[in-house]
């Protein structure tokens, strides 16, 4: 009887699971909210969040950092992770999309209506994510090259370690403009304004996957599923992300 009682108590208990999620900096507010909702729906689970530029996160995972879920702001970074064998098989999916915009300080007197405007003499400093590690920086360069103004604009570039740093530069009026995501601009409406949406020949979609070395793969898969659930999508939508 005692043995049966102990077994019953164990089987009825909540198994504690910790899920470490490395996510692109642009997902900060949305993922903080998602983590709270996920934990409320899965008592006993704890979500540990780590935010940085997608390329930096990839470097951490490749170096052996204990990560269960990787959410990138672009396909290129996730492709590299897959090529390195860092992702669990058949777990990669897209969960959100975004847009690239040009933002300026809220009190800016500049009239910027297209990328060619950035080549003008009045624009002297433009915050752009580091192309090697920041997806927003790669998207920015791609757009500027397509507009045939990269050569004129690149000397004015102030490199940012992630898209949020680029946003901060504008908010503090340290630069004339910055190329960031639409969702980033939305978090500082009292300090920055969107000048225009940047045309791109590729969609900005966010992929997520379970890391191959995860020690909590079941919980990691559950978290990924939550991102794509109606509740997860609603939270992402609240922060300006569109469906994938």
- Helix content bin: 25-40%
Low-confidence stretches: 1-13
What's the total count of β strands? 10
Topology-level CATH name of the largest domain: D-Maltodextrin-Binding Protein, domain 2
What's the helix-strand series?
HEHEHEHEEEHHEHEHEEHH
Find the CATH superfamily of the largest domain.
Periplasmic binding protein-like II
Largest sheet: 5 strands, mixed
Please state how the strands of the largest beta sheet are arranged side by side: 2-1-3-10-4
Mean pLDDT: 93
Second CATH tier, the architecture of the largest domain: 3-Layer(aba) Sandwich
Instruction: Please tell me the total number of domains.
Output: 2
Distance between the ends: 54 Å
Write up this protein.
This protein is α/β, with parallel strands linked by helices. It folds into 2 domains: 16-97 and 204-238, Periplasmic binding protein-like II (D-Maltodextrin-Binding Protein, domain 2, 3-Layer(aba) Sandwich), CATH 3.40.190; 100-197, D-Maltodextrin-Binding Protein, domain 2, CATH 3.40.190. It has helices at residues 2-12, 28-41, 54-62, 75-83, 135-146, 150-153, 163-171, 182-185, 217-228, 230-238; strands at 17-24, 45-52, 69-71, 93-98, 100-105, 126-129, 157-160, 177-181, 192-197, 204-210. The strands form 2 sheets. A 5-stranded mixed β-sheet has the order 2-1-3-10-4. Strands 7-6-8-5-9 form a 5-stranded mixed β-sheet, sandwiched between helices. Helix 2 links the parallel strand 1 (17-24) and strand 2. Helix 2 runs antiparallel to helix 10 and helix 3 (54-62) packs parallel to helix 4. The chain is elongated. Residues 1-13 have low confidence and may be disordered.
